[in-house]
Amino acid sequence: MKHYTPIFILYFFVALCATAADYTDDAIRTLLPFDAIPAITDPQFVSASDAKLDLDAPVIGVTFNDESRAYSLYLLNGHEIVNDVVGGLKIATTW
Amino acid sequence: MYDHQTRSLWSHITGEAIKGPLKGKRLKPLASMPQIAWKAWQLNYPNTRVLSVPTRDGMRENRRQDVYADYHASQRAGVSGMDYTDNRLPNKSLVIGVQVQTKDGNTQFRAYPLTHFTETAIINDTLGDVPLLIFHDKKSFATAVFKRNVAADARTFTPQDRYFVEDNTGTRWNLVTGAAISGKDAGKRLERLPAVNIYWFAWARYYPETSIYR
Q1: CB–CB of B35 and A60 under 8 A?
Q2: Residues B105-124: tens digit of each pLDDT
Q3: Residue B64 near chain A (CB below 8 Å)
């Protein structure tokens, strides 16, 4: 079954595009299957001096109880959610 | 987004579960810096940890380009083909979206178009009964929303240079960290509120009752 999944997705996406003009309410529409965009559930980090980010690269910054994080938006484009624990708070950073 | 435990579906804008066993539950929005240039974040938080994503071949993801650059530069609104009809602002106008709880228990919403921040980095405003300081630096894209109260006093802030302001008591504040660095209230912190950088069409769709700062 699994091998056919991509075909279903493609078909579904085409079908949605074809009927796009009909969307007038807030109904939930599925564009991608679960985990097509892989969220980060076990995040890894490096120090500021080891980070390979360009100086003008955009990041989301959070700081709780003197613990801070920077999440590159360019990385988040491919993952969209980081499940993390910062300063004792269990957070989901979303983009 | 969905949660692994119950497969409920959640809105990443409102934080509310909209389908599944947890429908109606809400995640608590937390205050963050929705966007800032790495250089400015690193300068203010030198001990920050930085997300690093391993790849299957033992390397690290190294993405130095915005894969959505074409989308951001286009007039396209979203990916679903839905029409967005709140024409108070153009769909792709970037705004800072703010919501506050007022004393009577209501929630008020206001959008601050980034076009207001070309000449100044701060706006002193009041939403409902909540005095607000809205900060956006056009160069680093740093964005922050603070309550203007220090203890019981509402302060009024004046820009000094890119990241700093002085209030009417002569206290000097860093608006990336929200910390008072000199003056009467040195060592205190402004209370940071949740805020998002968001396209107008999305903000207006989720919060149609929003006002716009003019």
Answers
A1: yes
A2: 999 999 999 999 999 999 99
A3: yes
